[in-house]
Amino acid sequence: MLRMLRKYKVSLLVLALLAISLVWWNQSRGFDNTAMAGIPVYADVDESSVLESDSLSSKLEPSYSSYYAEQQKSGAADAADFDLRLPAAEYSAVSSEGTELLSDLGGKTEKVLAMNAEDSWVEYTFSVPSDGFYQMGMEYYNLPGKRSSIIRSLKVDGEYLFSQVKRMEFQRMWKESAEPWRDNQGNEFNPKREEVASWQYREFRDAEARTADPFRFHLSAGEHTLRLEAIREPAALSELRIVSPQTLPSYAEVKQEYAARGYQPVQDRIVKIQAETSSLRSDPTLKRIEDREPLTEPFDKDAIVLNSFGGVGWRTGGQWAEWNFEIPESGLYNIGIRFGQWFLNGIPVERRVMIDGEVPFQEMNALRFPYKAEWQVNKLGNEDGAYLFYLEQGRHTLRMEVQVSGVGPMIESVLNTTHKMSLLSREITQVTGTNPDPNGDWKLEQNIINLVPRLHLMARTLDDAVQAMYDFGVAEGSSELSTLYEARDRFLEMAADTTSIPARLQQFTDLQSSLGLWVNGLMKQSIVMDYIEVKSEDQAWPKDAAPWYTRAGTMSYDFLSSFTKDYSGIGNTYKDEKVLDVWISRGRDWAEIIKQMIDEDFTPNSGIKVNVNVIPTLPADQKQILLLANTAGLAPDVALGVEGEVPIDFAVRNSLVDLNDFADYKEVAGRFREGALIPYKYDNGDFALPENQNFSMLFYRKDIMEQLGIRDEDIPDTWQEVMDLIPVLQQNGMDFYYPHAANNTSLAINEFAPFLFQFGGDFYKNNGTQSGLDSPEALTAMKMWTGLFTNYKLQKQADFYNRFRSGEMPIGVADYSTYILLSTAAPELTGWWGMKPMPGIEQEDGRINRSTGGLAQTGIIFKDSDMKEESWEFLKWWTSADAQENFGSELESLLGVEARWNTANIEALKRLPWQQDDIDAILEQWDWFKEREVVLGGYYTTRYIANIWNEIVLNGKFPREAMEQGVREINKELNKKREEFGLKVPEASGAAGSGEGGQK
């Protein structure tokens, strides 16, 4: 027994040593701080010289930090004693459309200039007395629009001085429309946020808050012209200001001023401001959230209480929130904030703090909130103690704005590196091609200028960024820095052995993607706040977090309560009364918004009470649950979020209401594109309404196309133009992208559909009883589709998003999800990419047929419902333009642009906050929207479209032979399924499926 115990102890010791070794190895891997020791400094190499081959560098504006540094090198300094106000109505030139002069707006008696349309502009002429840096700003009034922030660009003497002035952001203001409301289970919900229209002044600043101070513009003595251009959203302009740069005093200077004025600390005073009671905020996404830490105020162990503010929604540069508070006695106060910052591992985040509209001293311009995995109290101060703030008796405001300036230089360094990687990647693929032989001798150092110095310089840039992050206050060993270490070491490895680079092209692309995601993550600087405390020095600071045993007790109580709570219901639930039962196959956040809209809008106006339940979102689980519920007689009245191919499965079983039974169906159907309703038709009936709608578009890199000499107006409109472009791309080491999901055969039908529809073909004939793929149009379409991969050698599988970012695939066809990815997760490409309708086939009348579909999700009514009329009223309300716009706005308010609702309602789509160029392109594509029929046995069409592609592209079979074989098999399955459901099988459905008949 003793021997066994000793063995057990030895085994434990070995395991412990192994675990420690693994932890050490993981932590130390790539974290060699001496890695750069032997790397040359390249003092004799001008870094810009390694980018001589980048013709784009001369066409793009520098970043603000590069512009400012260059001007300082030239000896520029701040101008002094200058303050110029330019009334908006006294312009020197203005666009003839989209602008108007208004009077008596927001309490202003003088005339102001409204810029209502995108691309409208106004110019002002002014003079400055001396060379130097000047700051600018404008007073503006938010006019009714699409709820997005206002975007303006600025040209000085006809030029954008730096890239950030092409997109300056001016926030709207929002407040809660009422107090939070509670459902009949006691849970608290956010009220709606409504816009506040008022005049605001804001300096011209970085929209992403990567610099702490307003922009400094270098102006020479004499006359200048400013042009302000409207990029997004209408707003009125009262005046422009051009002033000498203002320097904030330090706290030490402010403290001396306090002493000189005789200000004294107050005694025995505490003013507590609950963070969730914010009076104004810049963004409707900023809202109350729940926290279950026992010390968070207020706390309710039995229900959801929205007792804190911010969280993941309060993270983007420039977002601000404001609180009102009353000071009982004039004097000096401390300020503390109870907060949680567990979002960026080991990295502090920043906020700009303003009191009564002014930053009190320099240290408040970028106040740091350190990382910790639990609640903390930020005692606003430094190593010498808490700061003192002088506050007069009476009402005050405190505003906190997301600031990213502390990590701004590091973000810029990494973005510059990703740009250099993109250029270098293109140069490498020009030598090696996109699929190089890893064993070939490509002589990269001879073919690419300064290859090794460029790799070393990129590695040094990332190493410097790491050191700067540590200086900023990042905790040693933070996992957030592993991406930089990894990329740095890979650059060093490539420089040490350039022959390994061809085999590392995918790794190179992955690194670029990782660095882009790192930047995107670092720029999202979230905190959650419980309260702000303004107190006298003699009062104790509040506790930061509850003891571990208190938190453990709360967690245990929550765990035990979870066995008795009903989590399927959302909001108010009704029992023992006539109520409409709605099941929603979406996330809980989505369902909560819908339920709130129902309780605030639909139920009060219709008198129809609604219970909402959430069901799984995976198509297979969703279909199974609905089928089982229908079989058991437990189906809901209405189901939302139903996948587009499901309604016909229920319709053929006589389980759904034919919407033609309602007199106003045709009127309601007019809300959507006619082609969007095709999949929901069966036996002369219509069995669903589309909720949202996918769509494919042509995405392209403006910068790379310009490098290739392809202007924006020359981007391909037809497939013939695409085929003319492909050789040009491939000669430059790049490629065109057309989607092919090799591991998902169900998507092949969507990839083939555009070609089939654009040539005038269809998947089925004779009322969906036979395959239509035996037509000449189908054969022509198949030849063109497969020819892209056989004749033009497009890659059969590729990650378009990452290759688009790297520049390997600077143009291609992709769906709506790519738009969201590029908008939210590719900050380095902002302004460098565009979107147009997908290519098509030119018709005899000169029009280009761009037909394609985008099957998405639907709403259905079950036949067993005893509330059919009420269900129809609900479905009409839900698919209306007002409800869809409201839902889309609330969803984007909650989750950001990555959750933008791609509604199927045409009018609602126009109202959502798309940029005008983007919505114009989408609507042009929607003019050709056509979806395929969904028929019994249609899954065989999906399967055999994939098989036909494989036979032609992979096995070299002739297209006609592959098509004929596929049509025979498809027709067999269509007949089999019709027999199974007792439907008439068409006569003479022959080998090629050419029979007639097919009445259902």
Automatic annotation (TrEMBL):
This is ABC transporter substrate-binding protein. Gene3D superfamilies: Galactose-binding domain-like, Periplasmic binding protein-like II. InterPro entries: Bact_solute-bd_prot1, SBP. Residues 981-1000 are annotated as: Disordered. SUPFAM superfamilies: Periplasmic binding protein-like II. It comes from the Bacteria. PANTHER family: ARABINOSE-BINDING PROTEIN-RELATED (PTHR43649), EXTRACELLULAR SOLUTE-BINDING PROTEIN FAMILY 1 (PTHR43649:SF27). It comes from Paenibacillus borealis.
